[in-house]
Amino acid sequence: MTKKKTLLGAVIAAVALAFAPMPAHSAGDGTHAYQQDWSFSGVFGTYDRNQLRRGFQVFREACSSCHGLDFISFRNLSEPGGPEYSEDAVRALAAEFTIADETAQGGERERIPADRWPEPFESEQIARDANGGQLPPDLSLMAKARGIHQDFPYWAFNYFTAYQEGGADYIYNLLTRYSEPPEGEEVPAGLYYNDFYGTIAMPPPLSDGLIAYEGEGTPQTVSQYSADVAAFLQWTADPHMVSRKQMGFRVMIFLVLFAGLLYLVKRKIWRDAH
Ligand code: HEC
Predict the structure, then answer these.
(1) Prediction pTM value
(2) Could you list the residue range(s) of the whole structural domain that residue 202 is in?
(3) 191 lines ligand 1 (CB under 6 A)
(4) Cα distance between residue 196 and residue 194, in whole Å
């Protein structure tokens, strides 16, 4: 094979790998995570605005009574690339909540878009007391703090597929895999069994039909709610993922072209040397 063909082969192999689908794990293998096909997967993935809106609705109705979202201000919900609610909608939403303010009459005022999403509990102790001693963690960065385990060689593909959805996959699996404990295993009172996580202090927060989505066409199932809220939490943890991937891809293209250019220059310079 000539050098040219080897180089071409390497480029084609790299491109093919980058677009190869991730091998999914088969069902029933314990704590392995089932990976979802997210709209924001891959090099060209983007957040789906409607999914982020549904995910915010799920968070608000099914999670926000226990979990905070400390790093999210109301105005973030109207920023480009997110749920993109109108500024008026965000102002109205913020005004549904109050915040302590010494300078306001009565020591309290309505929230404004620059305020943070409200905390569910007044203190950590109250939060623990309400949850059998366990603290429901803040969810704003949860999708960054958790990931899924992959065996070799699967994780090696991640470099090519720009896989950064481990957090969303983790949350999806956690929410969809509450089940009966395996035979012979006792679940202590106040705890719940989850086939993905093990025993956990969080009661199953979702059930089919729990949340009424506007419009028709989106299934109102645990699986759909879980995917939507996981996508929303991926966005809260990593709102710039899309632009970062796009930039990364441009850099890769540039490097490939640049390598080709260097090769041609090298050939030209050394042309008469043999
Ligand atoms: C009734 C309160 C309650 C509700 C409602 C609730 N959670 Fe939780 N959650 C908890 C508690 C308590 C823990 C800590 C569990 C533990 O450490 O055993 C937890 C833990 C978690 C974790 C972290 C698991 C880990 O890896 O450490 C995630 C993620 C999570 N919840 C997501 C959600 C989402 C998403 C929703 C809404 C769909 C939700 N929770 C609704 C109480 C709640």
Answers:
(1) 0.85
(2) 39-72+121-247
(3) no
(4) 5
